Amino acid sequence: MATDTAHSAAHSTLVPATHAAxxxxxxxxxxxxxxxxxxxxRVLMLGSIPSPASREFGFYYMHPRNRFWPxxxxxxxxxxxxGIDARRDFALRHRIALFDSLVECDIDGASDASIRNPVxxxxxxxxxxxxxxxxxxxxxxxARYFTRLCRPMLDDAGIxxxxxxxxxxxxxxxxxxxxxLAQAYLPVRDAAESEA
Length: 196
Fold this sequence. Notes:
Layout: E1 14-16, E2 26-29, E3 43-47, H1 52-57, H2 68-75, H3 84-93, E4 96-100, E5 102-108, E6 111-120, H4 124-128, E7 134-138, H5 140-156, E8 163-166, H6 178-192
Parallel strand pairs: 3-4, 3-7, 7-8
Antiparallel strand pairs: 1-2, 2-5, 5-6
């Protein structure tokens, strides 16, 4: 069954970390909005954990300078979708599922390098309930946690799913401009349009 709880709450659960070494860390969970997918999804795109902007708006890649949505618009030759409803419709129409490698961690702002106590996402229900044939991780951190924490769960379930690491669309990844990112993301379009 398709799951889309993007509007269930405005904010993720935030609990200040208590130990002294983590004074700047915030405990973040993925409870405010879950995975976006449908039985017709062909690809699953994974970030690491929602950024503060995404947690504020309750949807994926909502920082105004993140290039995720402009990149997807470019590879499908469409205008960039604006707003949560348009972005949800865009992803589902192009058979793209969205989630993260982690559902819980301690993190300082949006700094993936600061992540502590990561808890992996259980991707098995999404993969069992859809036609997803390929996973794409949108950055090194997502790929690392997928490989280290999510992949063993899939292996134990007998799910042999290919994963491709893509460059991050974060504004922090300034070395990659929009045309270069779009070129790197073309395999997402090819996999999403596949009937295999």
